């Protein structure tokens, strides 16, 4: 890959990570109203930072795409004509939708607003950001696949945003409330994992044109296979947390606490690699179908 393509991949990965953490932060905040007040402050701050970072990555992507169209130079990145071409393309549509969605995230977290207003604004932000993902890439123009992608990304965002607060909560499990938050996430996982498998598996088969062999005999399929392998590892870690480590922590086993935190850290690392591979897939290759 040339330097400009690498830059686009990294910027896209940064946008994906930031936007999903912003979406997931809102979803996690709504699903866990009983979080300790100190944790709420940290979560709201990190969600707002993620939204701001997502906006920066979006604008950087706009510039990099214009530079790429102009042959790969910074002069082209600020060319009004090239910027206009990008703005009128599918990427421009993604930029506008995601930008609005990310801008309203801090409003949804503002404690001075009525709860109903915060929830309504937060729901609007989540829908706009997830919709933005479906406007660019392989699912554009396919309503059913776009809905599957939005479901898949929404669930992944919730899981990703949960890792940091759960890691901190796992470090203070001396209180029954902290253990209950870990158990609560495990109960969410009973629904989250099957839906992730359904949405992700359906999308993978569609991208492969309904031919599983394409996962091995095409360049796109081989890279997708690496991503799916990482996802399976992530799901196995989640299952280990749900059925063994969290119950062991609840029973007061001291060694389980360290193992749980290590497992959560590995989950975060796997998610980072998955996002990076997704950015490579979207930037450099096309599906079989």
Automatic annotation (TrEMBL):
One of its GO terms (cellular component) is plasma membrane. The chain crosses the membrane at residues 6-28, 49-74, 94-110, 117-136, 148-167, 188-208, 228-250, 262-282. InterPro entries: CopC/D, Cu-R_CopD_dom. It comes from the Bacteria. Its main location: membrane. Belongs to the CopD family. This is Copper resistance protein D. It comes from Billgrantia kenyensis.
């Amino acid at each position: 890959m040339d330097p400009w393509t690498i830059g686009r991949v990294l910027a896209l990965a940064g946008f994906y990570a930031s936007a999903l953490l912003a979406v997931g932060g809102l979803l996690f905040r709504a699903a866990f109203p009983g979080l300790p007040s100190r944790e709420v402050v940290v979560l709201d701050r990190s969600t707002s930072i993620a939204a701001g970072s997502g906006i920066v990555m979006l604008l950087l992507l706009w510039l990099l795409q214009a530079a790429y169209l102009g042959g790969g130079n910074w002069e082209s990145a600020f060319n009004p004509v090239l910027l206009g071409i990008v703005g009128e393309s599918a990427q421009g549509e993604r930029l506008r939708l995601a930008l609005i969605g990310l801008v309203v995230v801090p409003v949804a977290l503002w404690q001075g607003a009525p709860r109903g207003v915060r929830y309504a604004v937060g729901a609007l932000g989540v829908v706009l950001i997830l919709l933005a993902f479906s406007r660019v890439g392989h699912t554009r123009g396919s309503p059913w696949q776009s809905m599957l992608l939005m479901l898949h990304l929404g669930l992944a965002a919730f899981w990703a945003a949960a890792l940091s607060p759960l890691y901190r909560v796992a470090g203070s499990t001396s209180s029954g409330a902290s253990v209950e938050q870990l158990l609560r996430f495990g109960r969410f996982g009973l629904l989250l994992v099957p839906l992730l498998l359904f949405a992700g598996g359906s999308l993978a088969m569609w991208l492969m044109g309904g031919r599983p062999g394409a996962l091995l005999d095409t360049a796109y399929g081989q890279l997708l296979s690496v991503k799916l392998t990482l996802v399976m590892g992530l799901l196995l870690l989640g299952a280990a947390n749900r059925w063994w480590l969290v119950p062991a922590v609840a029973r007061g086993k001291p060694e389980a606490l360290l193992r749980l935190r290590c497992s959560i850290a590995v989950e975060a690392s796997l998610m980072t690699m998955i996002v990076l591979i997704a950015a490579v897939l979207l930037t450099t290759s096309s599906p079989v179908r």
